[in-house]
Design brief:
This protein has 129 residues and is α+β, with helices and mostly antiparallel strands. It contains two helices and two strands. It has helices at residues 5-19, 51-128; strands at 22-32, 38-48. It has a two-stranded antiparallel ribbon. The longest helix is centred in the last third of the chain and has 78 residues, at 51-128. It is rod-shaped, with a radius of gyration of 41 Å. The relative contact order is 0.08. Residues 54-77, 117-129 have a biased composition (Basic and acidic residues). It comes from Hymenobacter negativus. Residues 1-20 form the signal peptide.
């Protein structure tokens, strides 16, 4: 099975949000008696998150992940474009070198043909003598 990276990140965000639906709320109350004694009472209440709050968090996490994935995709596209440009430049350089080598080979072939023709003429001259 193949899944896109975006789908996997959204699934992970949903899983994390679903497990984090419980919030701890703490309230502190400080009272002072007429004698000057201070008392602080801390109340801890745990409230479960509503489905709407969980859905909103999941949507926000999905939107954030989508933005990050698009940004990463744009960076990758830019790097691939740069790599393509480098490959094109290397190909052009290789073509130029191959053309130069081909020209050199043609020149050597022409020189060899010219030398062979001259040798043939010299042998004809020597045979006449």
């Amino acid at each position: 099975m193949k899944f896109s990276v975006k789908t996997l990140f959204v699934a992970a965000a949903v899983a994390f949000t679903a497990t984090a639906c419980e919030q701890t709320k703490t309230t502190e109350t400080t009272t002072t008696t007429p004698e000057g004694t201070t008392a602080t009472v801390t109340t801890d209440s745990t409230a479960t998150m509503s489905a709407e709050e969980a859905g909103a968090k999941m949507d926000a996490a999905g939107d954030k992940m989508e933005g990050k994935m698009e940004e990463a995709g744009a960076k990758m596209d830019a790097k691939m474009e740069a790599a393509g440009d480098k490959m094109d430049a290397a190909g052009a350089k290789m073509d130029a070198k191959m053309d130069a080598a081909g020209d050199k080979m043609k020149a050597m072939g022409n020189a060899a043909a010219k030398s062979a023709e001259q040798t043939k003429d010299n042998m004809k001259e020597a045979a006449k003598k």
